[in-house]
Amino acid sequence: MSKEQARTAPEADEESTTGDIETGADAVVRALENAGVEHLFGVQGGAIMPVYDSLYYSDMTHVTMAHEQGAAHAADAYGIVSGDPGVCMATSGPGATNLVTGIADASMDSDPLIALTGQVPTEFVGNDAFQETDTIGVTAPITKANTFADDAGTVGTDVGTAFALAESGRQGPTLVDLPKDVTSDPTTQDPGAPTLPETYNPPETANPDAVSDAADVLAAAEKPVILAGGGVIKAEASDELRRFAKEHEIPVITTMPGTGSFPEDHELSLEIAGMHGTGYANMAITVTDCMLAIGTRFDDRLTGGVETFAPDADIIHVDIDPAEISKNIEADHPLIGDAKAVLDQLADAMVHSPSTDAWLEQCEMWTEEYPMDYAAPEDDPVKPQYVVEVFDEMTDDDTVVTTGVGQHQMWAWQYWTWTEPRTWVTSHGLGTMGYGLPSAIGAKFAAPDRDVVCFDGDGSFLMTCQELSVAVRENLDIVIVILNNDAIGMVRQWQDAFFGERHMASEYPWIPEFDTLAEAFGARGFRLDTYDEVENVVEDALEYDGPSVVDVHIDPDENVYPMVPSGGDNGLFALTEGQL
Amino acid sequence: MSRRQDVRRTGLEGPPPEERTRPVGRRNSQGIRIDPEIEAEHEPRRTTISAYVKDEPGVLARVSGLFHRRQFNIESLTVGPTQNEGYSRITLVVEEPDPGIDQAKKQLNKLVPVIHVRELDGNPVAVELVILKVDGDEPDKVQAITEMYGGQTLDAGPRTITVQITGSESEIDDAIDAYKQFGIREIARTGQAALARGEAETARVEEKHT
Fold first, then answer.
1. Is B27's CB within 8 Å of A307's CB?
2. What rounded mean pLDDT belongs to chain A?
3. N or C: fewer beta carbons within 10 Å in chain A?
């Protein structure tokens, strides 16, 4: 019987038992269906086979990835773009350990992700059985919660709870470890809808007195800024942020995960801050006297050295996780709650707006003094920033951009004009090279009607390029743009600046021809060497109905600026290597 | 999308660092705004944290893993059942500056099986236990020391005497010093167990506190 026949069989015969819950695996699948899951990303294997067998009859779409790391990244990106938790699955042992990088990535970025891992049968656990790994132990520090399912009767609710935890409060990855006997054992228990454990009660609104005090401080500020973090997007608070900033004429700076929460083409936008943020944003966050920071954990790539981070500012810190308050930067006014709810509270509590005319004028002066105006030569080779800008011009505002990690990621972040939330999909906290292609696959399943462009580096692409087979098999209309400089470029940039130009293990004496490699996978391959070809090739790649790879041989001497050295002073960002 | 004519190797234009507006303030390494003249940092202090937790598999591993991963300096950790079946109390003695103690409490509270966390500041009822095995050459003297510290002899033989002492951390330290003269063969020492003094609640048992 073909799979199609099997799927239609139950409709033909109402009495069929198909669809009833008979085993623990059926309960796992039902729990996912009850949670509204539509897509799963995974790789088959011994210990997870009962769950896959139950999926055979489900309407959910399972996407087989080439490697479990790809499954985790795809599910992670699916969660970022759709706002609903992504689900990845793998077998025990190497399947589970291959997920680890993707789970850690989701953990650092507070992305809602559910990982389901097979496990050896309960009676073998602890015996070093074939493909046994202590998955619970390995993933404990990188999950919000993880559970070893020990009973077929409750395994479905374990999965439901994992789902509820992943998407509630401060979002994050959860994992359920599924021993093969537990998923094979009989049960008829329907797990019902996902439910949070009784012990988990995330905060909603902030203390009204604290909100009122914070509003007074903000209204009295002379040089206020809003620092919008990833929490704004996670809380679906971009509209509230936009209203609030415009109403009170306060300039907005976004962190890397917060990028897209406020439109960069608006006059109040100072764009992006931190190690490779814009000069004007870094000036503003350094000299501000009041910072409304929303949903950010003050990562070191944002703050630089904490001694010099906004040292004159009263910090109003809105966060759903109390543990983020004063973890890295002391909060003068902690507002613990959901960003959307707290922004509403703050909007109501603002008696008047701060007088920001002079401050806005100062910020405007900085944007003129420190333009993001890269020096593009008339002659080839092509500058990477230009390629990013051309793609931006030739695609819609709702285009999803994914990246690997390195120089290409920074150029994409700096030179794309971000206007919408959930369009910027990258590995922020963990800095996972290889994230770009699998996340583009997950993003495309979440947003099938939108353009998906992956900017990748040659080094990053080589780490997960096998996932191109998935993009071809699923005929995904995505474009992978490799900004190829024959090097692990960001490492080489640091070697130039801090390691006496000794290019140890950062340059490739030889790398594959990526356009040819793409064709071998069955994708469309393009190579781009000159300015004259850029617009045509970009157009062809975007028009091609299926996955395409554009191998752009960029100026290998181009580095990423501005740059604040690690632990440095944001206000002293370097514009050239000589200033480092 | 303008392609400029001037060719430079790489980099951007603008006033160099030394020409920029500078803030006047400064923070310390803990991210706290300070008077630039005084580089004040919080000094570490020792305190007891009590956590009321759901007694599920792995909860102890989770707590100890958390303290290791976040580099909280932990002096002792004890765990045991409570009057409520299915719930345990974990008592931690930590030595950290105030911001570290604050973080330890918050991070502990984030763990899903942790119901409630409280720092037992002030003067909690706190006690630990030590079992010492010493040489048995001078049984009378050993007995005298044991009585002095309100301890008990658990085992006495021709060659060794094993005693138990309970008390505060410093009392136990003193007792161990006193036994040294006999030749200590082995020591087994628990960490601190503690409850808030008087009517004060050690940890709320009904609801998760955020």
1. yes
2. 95
3. N
Looking at residue B36, its pLDDT comes to 67
Q: Does the model's ipTM exceed the 0.90 cut?
A: no
Q: Which pLDDT does position A13 carry in this prediction?
A: 43
Query: Coil, helix or strand for A17?
Result: coil
State which residue of chain B sits closest to A288, comparing Cα positions: B23
Look up residue A554 and give its DSSP letter: B
A143 touching chain B per CB within 8 A: no
Which CATH number do you get for residue A530?
3.40.50.970
Angstrom distances, CA of residue A357 to CA of A71, A215, A379, A571, B15:
49, 19, 43, 22, 23
Burial label for A498, CB within 10 Å (0-12, 13-18, 19+), is: exposed
Nearest residue of chain B to residue A372 (CA atoms): B12
Q: Is A299 on the interface with B (CB under 8 A)?
A: no
CB contact under 8 A, B103 and A323: yes
Query: CATH number of the domain at B45-119, please?
Result: 3.30.70.260
Q: How far is B158 from chain A (nearest CA, A)?
A: 43
Provide CATH code, domain B125-194: 3.30.70.1150
Between helix A407-415 and helix A384-393 the angle, nearest 10°, is 40
Residue A229 and residue A232: Cα distance in Å, rounded? 6
Q: What is the pTM for the complete model shown? A: 0.94
Question: Distance between CA A564 and CA A305 in Å, rounded?
Answer: 10
CA distance B79 to A67: 41
Dihedral of alpha carbons A475, A478, A484, A488, sign: negative
- Nearest chain A residue to B31, by CA: A329
Chain B CB contacts of A144 under 8 Å are 112
Task: Tell me, rounded to whole angstroms, the distance of Cα A338 from its chain centroid.
Answer: 19
CA distance A470 to A5: 24
